[in-house]
Amino acid sequence: PDQLLPQETIDFSEIINLTLDILDLDPPNADDVAILPYSSGTTGLPKGVELTHRNIVSNLCQISTAETDALELAHGDFQEISPGILPMFHIYGFTITTMNLMTKGAKVLPLPKFTPDSFIDVLQNYHCSIIFAAPPLGYGLTCTSPVVSTVLKSVRERLGKASSGSVGQVLPNTEVKLVKLDDKTATPLGLREQGEVLVKGPQVMKGYHNNPEATKNALHEGWFKTGDLAYYDANGMLFITDRVKELIKVRRYQVAPAELEELLRDHPSVEDAAVI
Q: What pTM, to 2 d.p., does this model score?
């Protein structure tokens, strides 16, 4: 119903019939909002994330260095080919699958709707060289041992020394620190000490759309409070362990459900576990 739509909402039918004179448009400023993806809503209702032109371009530069880039620039007869199976209105699908591939001169093959048959057809007919996808898409490979070892070798060749289970190292021009939840001084923690992940860099959002309170809670002096718990090892690899909001307070201790679940799953009589 129209009464449930937020203000400034434009119907899609209006957009496709809209005519604009490009010459009359003022060029955007680098700090103007370019896109407004919505958060996943893990801590409440989804929030509009204001990402500027500077945010997007900075992020594309950060993931295009020799250390971070898994893609090869198009040259001669070579061109990376990838199926566009992730929604382009999600940040992963927009930044990685669409913008990043296009800056490399790659070919993106959007699927109108994902089905196993259409996905396999694209892989076979277009000889895709790289796939960006969610983890469940690769679960079936666990039944094909020779394939898994070959894929793992290829991944290591492209991604280098990334540790298994890690989200990798910090991107260029980015600062990350881990802090205790109750430490108002935000003093950085040391090696293998678990704390909340704070991030600062040119890719960090401008704020939450029409939500100054949420913006104030998330950003402090340029540092974005991710709400993730993590630790880092001697190689600077970051390991996400849990979400701050999921912590269970037991007396004066903060207990991470994921840690307890892992201990329970180690028991031979337990197949799976969930701590609430």
A: 0.78
